[in-house]
Amino acid sequence: MSELHWRWWQRGVIYQIYPRSYKDSNHDGTGDLQGIIEKLDYLNDGTENSLGVDAIWISPFFPSPMKDAGYDVANYVDVDPLFGDLATFDRLIAAAHERNIKIIIDYVPNHSSDRHPWFIESRSSRTNPKRDWYIWQDARPDGSPPNNWGSVFGGKAWTWDDTTQQYYFHQFDPSQPDLNWRNPAVKAAMLDVLRFWLDRGVDGIRMDVIYMVWKHPDMPDQPLIPGAAGRGPDDLFGRQQHLYDYNYEGIHSIMQEIRTLFDAYPGDRLSIGEIWLDLPERMKYYGNNDELHLPFNFGLISSASFLEETPWSAADVRRIVDEYEAALPAFGWGNWVMGNHDTPRLASRLGSHSKARTAALLLLTLRGTPTIYMGEEIGMVNGDIPPDKIDDPQGLRLGAAYTRDKCRTPFQWDGSDYAGFSTVPTWLPVNPDYPLRNVAGEWLDERSMLTLYRRLLWLRRRSMALSVGSYEPLESPEGTYVYVREYGPETMLIALNFTGEVLLNTLLDRQGMVSGMLELRPQEGVLVRLD
Ligand code: GLC
Q1: Which of 246, 240, 243, 242 is nearest to 224 (CA)?
Q2: Is 91 domain-assigned?
Q3: Is residue 314 part of a domain?
Q4: Of 370, 495, 398, which Cα lies nearest the Cα of 54?
Q5: Beta-bridge mates of residue 166
Q6: What does DSSP assign to residue 238?
Q7: Is the pTM of this model over 0.90?
Q8: CA distance 74 to 64
Q9: Would you say residue 511 lies in a domain?
Q10: Å from CA of 208 to ligand 1 middle
Q11: 120: part of which helix (H) or strand (E)?
Q12: Distance CA 154, CA 149 (A)
C-alpha cells in the first residue's frame, strides 16, 4: 500500500483543545480562538521545533450560557463572543490549513441549552410548533416524573415546567433539555448544523454522546443494577441498566445518515463519535463501513468516573489492546484516547509521571489514531479546585470529588503570572505547580515530558511502521508488555516495563522504571517502589 493511500486521520495525531483554558488573547481570563491561532506554531510549524500534531479538535465555542462549559449550546451556528466570532473562526481554519493542521470541531446533538430559541419556544405553550422539538411528558398521577431515569450529572432526568404543566427530559443538567430526534424536523435541522460547519471547511466533527440521541419511544422504567452504589445516593443514572435511554435500536440508521452526509463532501472529512459503551456495542458504531469513521475508544481510560481507577498493569493493558484489536472490523481503523476534558489527568490517574511517560509511549506507538488532551504533553496534574470555584454541573451536584474542573485548569505556557495563559485572574485557578511545569521550561529540558512527546510525535510522523504498521504482541516477562509494529521493510519494537519505579536515587538522575537488572554506580543508592 502506498503512503498516499492512507488518510490524514489514519496517519495523524489529534490534539484536543479545551478553548476556555488554552490561551487568552484578550485579557479576560478565558481562552479564545485568537489564542489558539497564536499557538499554532507551537502545535506544528512543519519542523521538529514544534510539537508535531496533525489535527486539533476544539471543544465547543458556540454561544452558550456556559452551564456545562459550552456543552449547552444556545446557537449551533455561531461563535460565543467569549471566544471570538465567525470571522475569527475562519481565520483559524485558514491559519491552521496553512500549516497543514486539520480542524475538528465539536457538535452537541443530544441536547441544546434551555436558552436556545428552539427551547424557549417549545416551553412557551403546549401548542407551540416547536413543542415536539423536545421531550415533554405528563406527570404520573402522583405528580412524580414519567419514569425512573436519572441524569448523568445526578438526580432525576426530568424537570417540571410550571407554565405548561409537564415534565421535560434532560439526560444531563436541567439547563440541557434533550432534543427529540424522532421528530423529522429536529433531525433535519441538526443535520443542517453539520452541513454548516462542513461547508465552512472543517476537516472533521466530534459528535458529543451521539449514541444517546435515540431513546425508546415509550421511555419505560429501567431495571436497577442489584447492589450498585453509583456515585453516591443522588446518582440514579449509575444504578440503572441502560436498556432504553441510549444506544437504543434505530440509532444505527441515524449514524448511516450522518455518514452519507459526510461522504457527500470532498476531501477526507472525519466523523468521530463519543461512545461510552462496552467494546462489542462500541464496535457496532463502525457499522458496515457506513457509520462513524472513529467511535472514540476509551478502553484505556475505562470509565468517565473521576474515582474509578484505570487498570494499569502490563497484563491489563495488553489484554485491553488485544481485545480491541481482535474486535476491530477488517475495514475499521482504530483509535486511542487516554485523557480528555471529562477525565482525570493522566499523571494523577495513574499515580506518577513515570507512569504517564509510559502511557505516552504506548499512546503514540499503538496501532490506531491517538488523541492527546492538551496539557498531557507537559504532564499537567489535576487541579485542586476550592469548593466555591467549582464550575462543573457534575461537581456541583455529585460533589467536589467528581468535578471535571480538575482537568480543565488553564494551560501552563511559562513561569510568568497566570502561567502565560492570561494576564488577569483566570476563570479556573491556575495550578500552582506552573512555575515548574510549563512549556517554556520543558522546551529547554532534554529530558522533560514535553521533549518526550515532541520526539515521539516526530518519530511517529516519519515512520510508516509506527503510524500505520501492523501490530503484533510478543511474549515477554511478567510485568512487561512488548509489541512490534511493521510496515514493509520497517520494523519497530516497543518494550514497556510496568513494574518497579525508581522514586529516588542518591545522584538524583534516575527516575522512573527499572528493569530486572539494576546496575548501581559507585556510591549510588536507589529507592524503588515495587508494587
Ligand atoms: C460529553 C462531554 C461532556 C459533557 C456531556 C454533555 O460527555 O464530553 O463534557 O458534559 O457530553 O454534553
Answers
A1: 240
A2: no
A3: no
A4: 370
A5: 161
A6: G
A7: yes
A8: 5
A9: yes
A10: 6
A11: helix 117-122
A12: 10
Round the CA-based radius of gyration of the chain to a whole number and report it.
Answer: 23
H or E element that contains 113:
none
Beta-sheet strand order (sheet of 512-513): 512-513, 501-505, 526-529
Q: Which residues are catalytic?
A: 208, 274
**Ligand 1 pocket test: which of 73, 175, 208, 397 has the largest number of ligand atoms within 8 Å of its C-beta?**
208
What is the distance of C-alpha 514 from the center of its chain?
Answer: 32
Residue 68: CB within 6 Å of ligand 1? yes
Whether the CB of 208 sits within 6 Å of ligand 1: yes
Q: What is the pLDDT along the chain (531 residues), one digit of tens a residue?
A: 456 689 999 999 999 999 999 999 999 999 999 999 999 999 999 999 999 999 999 999 999 999 999 999 999 999 999 999 999 999 999 999 999 999 999 999 999 999 999 999 999 999 999 999 999 999 999 999 999 999 999 999 999 999 999 999 999 999 999 999 999 999 999 999 999 999 999 999 999 999 999 999 999 999 999 999 888 889 999 999 999 999 999 999 999 999 999 999 999 999 999 999 999 999 999 999 999 999 999 999 976 677 777 788 999 999 999 999 999 999 999 999 999 999 999 999 998 898 899 999 999 999 999 999 999 999 999 999 999 999 999 999 999 999 999 999 999 999 999 999 999 999 999 999 999 999 999 999 999 999 999 999 999 999 999 999 999 999 998 888 999 999 999 999 999 988 877 777 787 877 665 656 677 777 777 777 766
CA torsion, ordered 229, 408, 271, 46, to nearest 10 deg: -150
Nearest Cα residue to atom 2 of ligand 1:
208
488 occurs within a structural domain: yes
| 218: Cβ contacts below 8 Å, ≥ 6 apart | none
**Domains in the chain, number:** 1
Set of cell numbers at residue 366: 499503538
Q: Which three cell numbers stand for residue 484?
A: 512490534
Q: Which domain holds residue 492?
A: 469-529
- Residue 209 near ligand 1, beta carbon < 6 Å: yes
Burial tier of 4 (Cβ tally within 10 Å: 0-12, 13-18, 19+): exposed
Distance of alpha carbon 442 from alpha carbon 439, whole angstroms: 5
H or E stretch at 440: helix 439-444
Ligand 1 contact, 71 CB (< 6 A)? yes
Q: Enumerate residues 6+ apart whose C-beta is below 8 A from 249.
A: none
Say which amino acid occupies 454: R
Rounded Cα distance, 381 and 371, in Å: 18
User: What is the whole-number distance in angstroms between the Cα of residue 458 and the centre of ligand 1?
Assistant: 31
The number of CA neighbours under 13 Å toward the Cβ of 440 is: 11
Q: Where are the beta strands (DSSP E) in 6-116?
A: 14-17, 55-58, 102-107
Amino acid found at 161? D
Q: Is the CB of 62 under 6 A from ligand 1?
A: no
Q: Which residue has the cell 468535578?
A: 403
CA-closest residue to ligand 1 atom 12: 71
